[in-house]
Queue: 2 jobs
Job 1
Amino acid sequence: MTTDNSKYEKMLTTLIEEAKKNLSKVDEALLIKAFNYSLEAHKDDIRASGEPYIVHPYSVAMIILEEFPVDDITIASALLHDVVEDTDIKIDFIKKEFGKEVAEIVDGVTKISGIFRGQEINKAENYSKFLLSIVKDIRVIFVKFADRLHNMRTLEFVNPDKQRRISLETLEVYAPLAHRFGLGRIKWELEDLAFKYLNREAYEEIARKLQTKRKDREAYIKKFTAPIIEELDKLNIKYEISGRPKHLYSIYLKMIKRNKPFEEIYDLFAVRIIIDSDNPTICYTVYGIINLIYSPIPSRFKDYIAIPKVNNYQSIHMTVYGPEGRRVEVQIRTRKMHEVAEKGFAAHWKYKENRTNIDKELENWVNWIREIFENTTNKDDARKELIENFKLNLYQNEVFVYTPKGDLKRLPVGSTPVDFAFEIHSKIGHHCIGAKVNGKIVPLDTPLKTGDQVEILTSKNHHPNKNWLNFVKTSKAKSEIRKWLNAEEQEIIQKGKEIWERKTKKLKLNFSNEDLMRIIHTHKYDNSRQFFKAIAQGSLNVDEILTAKKTKEEKDKQNDLDFNKFADIARGEVGGILIDGKKSSILYDYAKCCNPIPGDPVIGYITIGEGIKIHRKNCVNLINLSSIDPSKLVAVQWPETDSNLFVAGILIRGNDRPGLVRDISHSIVTYRNTNIRTFNISSNSPIFEGKISLYVQNLEHLNGIIERLKKIKEVTFVERFENEL
Ligand code: MN
């Protein structure tokens, strides 16, 4: 036990020493507490290697100090990363003891492990959970990668099935993610370790061949670098020059892809020159020196210093013919660029002046994810889109294209001139009408290729159209187009509404909501938005609707007037109403709601201030009025005009014209004091149809009226109508 204790003490001392070496500020007490806490929590656990479990969290913490020296919080989190997952300790306890930040990182690592387990990562939901947890705190991903790296380094102790499963997962999920985060060194170590367990034969063969070739290789590299070193020393440039280690897995992939033996692939030598200066121009000086010594292969020159890769990788890549005509790949970069290439985000963290850069990069991630979620209404769609975009960004394939001024733009593969236009400025995108690629006019959906020079043609009157959504690739273009389409539709609807309101106002027409909905449905629109849109776009003739309505209103008004006039005459003809069977001086008036005319069964209702109102007996108002006081009803009758009267019906049709109803009623009531019982008019422009019931003495009386009506101008049809009216 004493041996163990002193061993643990030594581990802790080493950890704190390394932390002080690599971090700008170390909370020693926090690290001691986390270490001892983890030691205690895992005291009953043993690793597959037979070692005490604490070796694992300790190693993970050490990897972080070496690879991602971010801060002491991350180290404490690394020490505690398996505590919640493997023991009974709850996250709340961690929070209480170590603070919110540590607790959130430990929680994040625990959750990510769950997400990654098995093939679950292929499910969209897990991707989004995963991404959201990353954007919450990037330190979660550092701990997770360190955890995985240590597990891979100690994978020999687990059974072959588990070795395979973990290796596959590492190759398919962790390595591409490490690449995305710019963790170059971690990526290749993970790949080589996974390769070892997935294809041990190939791995060992390549490793063996590398070993036997090592001496030759080193000798050649020495020969190659000697003249370069001489020149660099002359110029007093500080550098580190090395034969770049080739990763076994990448050699293997090349052998497979190009179907060539190891020897041919490995014929390509690789040298890396790291400049001990922050001044990138020195890289170009070195590039110039090498160009003077060896002949370069121009097509193999890549300047990632001027145009960094999406994961911030910067370097100059060149290939030259070295001694004996053998091709040598050379990478030139500054120390800082090298750290970024190997350690990604963590390196940014170390170079504090670049803090804004990581913040910006992180912000881009957050915005990207937010954009996807906000622009889709359906959660499943959002997830699908997220996966697609994630794949797109992860297995990044990009094209580099130029503006007419020579500025470079980076776009996802398959991007079109429209994507490019929005990339330059949303205004350019909005007014984009055409595009020239390398001077030639092309369709807007043409996929762009690296090196294309793209010029966007704009027109102030041109706007995004729906069809663009079928081919644009960038989420920026997509969301801008959608935004515009929504706004455009809103504007069109508003315009249609204004036209409608202006015209109805001009014609002094009033539409109730019900009227409007009836019209909308008559014209087969689902809602008012569609209706107003149709008006604005001119696909619906609003004047026709309004004219019909106006004509109808005028006719109704005229009919009312005609009827009132007719009713007055008819009532006068019979000599007014009898109250309680006799002529009376009591004030009375005819109710406007049912407009009784001679012949209608009537009843009186005593009102305050307006005397007796005469209603038809079947008047809806009178029947329905709940406030009707039965004691206020009085019996009233029309005077008997003649005995032996009977009701007859007449159907009359004609071409509608103002005053027609008046002429008809006048014609009837002035013929032998005929009383009209009812008069129903239906006018379906331009045809007029009326059903009249009236009191006649005999057939001759009725025929006389029919003959009279036939003579009225625009009346085309008059006939006796037998049905009950
Ligand atoms: Mn672990």
Job 2
Amino acid sequence: MKYNISFHPTTKSNLDAVDFNNIPFGETFSDHMFVADYRNGAWQDLRIEPFGPITMSPANITLHYGQSIFEGMKAFKNQNGMPVLFRPEMHAQRLNASAARMCMPDVPEDLFLQGLNELIGIDHAWIPTTPNSSLYVRPFMFGTQEKIGVKPSSSYKFMIFTAPVGPYYDKPIKLIAANKYVRAVPGGVGEAKAAGNYAAGLLPTQEAHDAGFDQIMWTDNRNYQQIQECGTMNIFFIIGDTVVTPETNGAILKGITRNTLLHLLRDKGIKVEERAITINELVEAHAAGTLKDVFGAGTAAVIAPVSEISYYENKDDANYKTLKLPAIESRDISKNLKKELHEIRTGLRPDPHNWVHEVAVRDVAAV
Ligand code: COI
């Protein structure tokens, strides 16, 4: 279905103010945003308008009960200078999986894709081409009803805005295994990209920073042994010649970068296992010299090498132990994966899975 999306261009672009050689993550926003309002059971008033504040009632239901979900994806330029999106339909599907869990309405996949394509087509000049940069795309939905009462909102906003970004991490990260807090449990909302999951991670992460670590390695709630994720990313281990990542069990986000890397690894014939993995297994592999690599994988960071993992042997121990991981230069599999992914996304190598979708550029002046 083709939707009627109105366009209200900005009268003053901010593009000239951006230093594309020095882009902090998530602080600069492109000129326009896509907005759709859900009322009376239907998405309506579809529009692209200047990026800017939205007003809401202090009794907005989301501010109180957290009915809010989001996606994170990226746009690039290909070798012909055309904008491209990476696996946009999978992001649309995951948004709807999150929406279902949080009792929110579906955004039709073709509406998501049309709004997204038109927005990128208009703000294509905001896509950076400097190394390790991209246009981060943030689709999100939240309840808008004015009501103090715990129930699903009767109205919603679905919006997309974009932000030129540089790298998420500028160095390998140090992890501390959680032994006090949990991010999520099976049957909870950890598999949804729900805003509250990220809020739940703030205090543990702040405590980890205060203790000199970069991120938490999330573990299960029973004995803090079974590994789930790291920071806001899925986590991968290379043990011997096998790549292992925790299986999604209801507590783990079904990462699109995770899924992409699993495809690329299997395409190359590298052995991959999605299964439960414990800290104890890491300690043993480290002692045996077979723990070759650990990295986080997510849209924002892509592949984030882990330099060391600290852990408490017993839940109540006061002191932690640290596994120092092999030199980053020795990690050929993850280095090559990152390069391959970058080359697929920017058209430097074939795209056998049809992940990359070119976006039609819109001449804003002529709209
Ligand atoms: C992403 O990797 O895109 C995420 O959603 C993490 C975000 C909190 C920056």
